[in-house]
Give the backbone structure.
Amino acid sequence: MDDALPPIPTPAAHGWRRIRQQILPGIVFAVGVAATAVIWTQAVAPTTMIGEAETVRAEVRSAQAGTLTQVSAKLFQSVRAGDTLAHVVVTDPQVVEASLGVIRAEIEVMRQTSELRTLLDYERLMLDLMSERVKLTTLKSQLYQAESNFTRAKSLHTGKLLTDERFEEAQNTRDSLLAQVKVQTELVARIDPELQRLASTAGNLPSPSATHPLRASLKLQEEKLRLTEAQMRPVALVAPIDGIVSLVNRRAGEAVAPGEPIFQITAAGAPSIVGFVRTPVGTLPAPGAAVEVRTRSLPRRTGTATIAQVGAHLEPISPTLLAALHLPVTAVPTELGVRVHVTVPTGLALLPGEQVDLVLKD
């Protein structure tokens, strides 16, 4: 008698459960490792450095103390190198008025001397011209102050901080001085040609010698007037580079100190990319080596560049790059590196300050 029992058939569901629990995880793991290896070798390369598009900034300062006026620069305004951003009146209007008063009084004393009655028309016309120039200089000094007051009043009136009557008063004062300066300029322009005509024929007229005391006094007053005109002329503040106005520290009517930064101009493009080789420094890249530049913006863009320059010493890594590396930013620099300058790839427009990944190519 055969006592062997027939085998119990295994249900198909039990077999599939064994495959899912014991065999399938191993297959999935093996496929994942293979896929990771393929992706890592073909689509991902180790980043050797983090770079930053260089930001070029230039500050506009006044070499002399004065009052800021005629400010035409606005925040984020595009400017070209040489554009006038503002003017600085370096001389107090009261000082100018006092200097002109001294010149005016001395000319009047000369006019009242008995010797003046015997002079030629040339000397008399010279005195008239100087008197009118003094008046013109006085009006211009008052006009500069009126322009500054009108600009400030216009800003306050736009913000509903100044009444219409005060704004119209400032505008009328400015317009009145403009008209007076125009009339006085035309008067000086009419006298000057006549003076030149007399000067051309002065050699045929009996006149005092060039060393005559009155001639010397006239020359002295003319130099004083020329000095006062130069002192009251506003100093133009011009943009040193092409770019945009990224910072405005002072407004029209404010006093500025010598060397104080008034405007900041930021160049629109990045001339190079700055990266750091962190310590411990191994083999430094050589100038001319190829570098792949990868942007961090979406969609990611890539370009090929070359190393332009490599530093010769260790220096603190910039705080923005430390933040990108997730390193602590401290007041005392603790992370040092060798600076590397990389060219900007052609066709890869980078914003100043934009961070990129730099991959050295073998």
Observations:
- Confidence is low (pLDDT under 50) at residues 114-118, 202-211.
- The longest helix spans residues 121-158.
